[in-house]
Design a protein that fits this description.
Elements (H helix, E strand, L loop, with lengths): L1 E7 L9 E2 L12 H5 L13 H4 L10 E7 L3 E7 L5 E10 L5 E8 L11 E8 L4 E4 L12 E4 L2 E10 L4 E11 L9 E6 L11 E7 L2 E14 L5 E10 L2 E11 L2 E12 L2 E12 L3 E12 L9 E3 L4 E2 L8 E12 L10 E10 L17 E5 L1 H6 L4 E7 L3 H9 L12 H5 L8 E3 L3 H11 L8
């Protein structure tokens, strides 16, 4: 019997998500696990955040499940013009408030005794999909374009999912976009220093605001192409369509706090088409390793302008002419399902990478809307696994896997017996110095990953 062992040599540190460039206006992560995998989750979708990522995945959930959370959106944006002029924007302080958040509730109706409707699952979600807020100095180079911009939009998501076959589930839901005074400014808001005109003195502080409610829909499917001997998916395909929605914003133009006129504008939220594939090279009762790739097409070309029309018919032009974009999200997850020292716990390491194009052309650059090509890394797993050199071994012999695991010791070094590798060299339950196969199936995959057949001595 073969046993695979990998020793990690060197000091290992866990990492936090980090961004290489500024964020474009995109839908924020809406779940802890999904966010850690850079939102590559539409082909997994096996927790209540499926309401957002792929509603068809709700059929994988049992009983009633609830999830809630929030993201901290902070940092700053630095701008340098071709002439060398610089400016620094922030999120109205060290972090945007209120933070982008989410709440999801799912209910498997069959588990609740409602059998007449078949394998139907219902869900409801409340998210802050954009969480966009930007502030620039009142004396900066952008002062006549924007000094403050916020979009505290809410998305209410009533959703249904139906399990058509053992391997195919379908989802259908609504996206109800609206604003609330309980969240941020309660409206779209843009402030600037007035350049002059329309009877408003130059240098006045002006504010444009508006709000509305609009609806769109989403449709989705989740298909399991392959299962292991335990019946668990090892290859999934997810497809999600989110429709365009149009907000006809009604509000006001203020100058130095006084109302000048009623104002109207149109904000188009783009359609989004997502295709995803997830593979589990390892999926046993003790360990799981998932790899996923999601690709988004975002129809930003529907945003042609954000022109503001005043009550007297005068239009304040704000051309946009955005372009549609693609986003590629890669995510991975390694889970320990049966920890010796924590029998009722699971532990997971996750990592991800996102590449997304900017949607805004240079000619219509709007400093109130962060826009650039995006490279985002979530690197806790990458940092750990690449933090030092490794020694890779293949062992052969009777009961090789059990003997090797006895030599390694318990997963938690604090619980490992004296004389084992983890007791001597492990730092904690996450950085425990050594990895070894836990089953013949896992060993077969891991050995083939590192060694060709011709390198093995039998």
């Amino acid at each position: 019997m073969w046993a695979f062992t990998m020793f990690l040599v060197g000091l290992c540190w866990g990492g936090l998500p980090w961004e290489a460039t500024a964020q474009v206006p995109r839908i924020q992560g809406q779940g802890t696990a999904a966010s850690a995998m850079s939102n590559a989750y539409a082909a997994q979708a096996d927790d209540p955040s499926a309401v957002h990522y792929n509603p068809a995945g709700m059929t994988q959930l049992s009983g009633v499940q609830v999830m809630a959370g929030a993201l901290i959106a902070g940092g700053s944006t630095n701008f340098t013009s071709p002439t060398g002029a610089t400016a620094r924007g922030d999120r109205n302080g060290s972090a945007a408030w209120p933070p982008p958040g989410h709440t999801f509730i799912t209910a498997n109706l069959k588990d609740l005794g409602v059998t007449a409707l078949g394998d139907l699952t219902a869900g409801i979600g409340l998210t802050v999909p954009f969480g966009s807020l930007t502030r620039w100095p009142n004396d900066g180079p952008f002062r006549t374009a924007t000094t403050f911009n916020t979009l505290p939009l809410l998305d209410i998501k009533p959703t249904l999912a139906y399990k058509a076959t053992d391997n195919l589930s379908l989802g259908l839901g609504a996206d109800i976009y609206t604003f609330s005074g309980l969240v941020g400014e309660g409206q779209v808001e843009k402030q600037s220093v007035w350049p002059g005109g329309l009877g408003i003195p130059a240098g006045s502080k002006v504010e444009l605001s508006g709000k509305d409610t609009a609806a769109g829909f989403n449709a989705s499917l989740l298909y399991t192409a392959l299962r292991n001997t335990d019946g668990k998916p090892v290859a999934n395909i997810g497809i999600v369509y989110r429709s365009q929605a149009t907000l006809h914003l009604s509000g006001a133009l203020l100058a130095n706090g006084a109302k000048v006129s009623d104002a109207k504008a149109t904000l188009v939220l783009p359609q989004v088409i997502t295709g995803a594939i997830a593979l589990w090279p390892v999926r046993t009762s003790e360990r799981e390793w998932k790899l996923e790739m999601d690709v988004d097409y975002v129809g930003w070309k529907s945003v042609r302008n954000l022109d503001v029309t005043l009550a007297n018919g005068v239009t304040i032009p704000q051309p946009q002419n955005w372009k549609s974009t693609y986003a590629v999200m890669l995510g991975t997850e390694y889970k320990w399902l049966a920890l010796e020292s924590l029998p009722n716990w699971e532990m997971a390491l996750r990592a991800g990478y996102t590449n997304q194009q900017q949607q805004m052309p240079d000619l219509t650059y709007d400093p109130g809307i962060p826009s650039s090509d995006l490279h985002m890394f979530f690197d806790s797993l990458c940092t750990f696994m690449s933090s030092g050199p490794v020694v890779v071994l293949v062992l052969q012999g009777d009961n090789a896997i059990k003997k090797n695991r006895d030599l390694m010791g318990a997963t938690d070094p604090a619980k490992a017996e004296a004389g084992t590798i983890r007791k001597a060299h492990g730092a904690n339950i996450e950085f425990n110095a050594v990895h070894g196969s836990d089953s013949p199936e896992t060993a077969k995959f891991e050995v083939s990953y590192f060694f060709p057949e011709t390198d093995l001595v039998k």
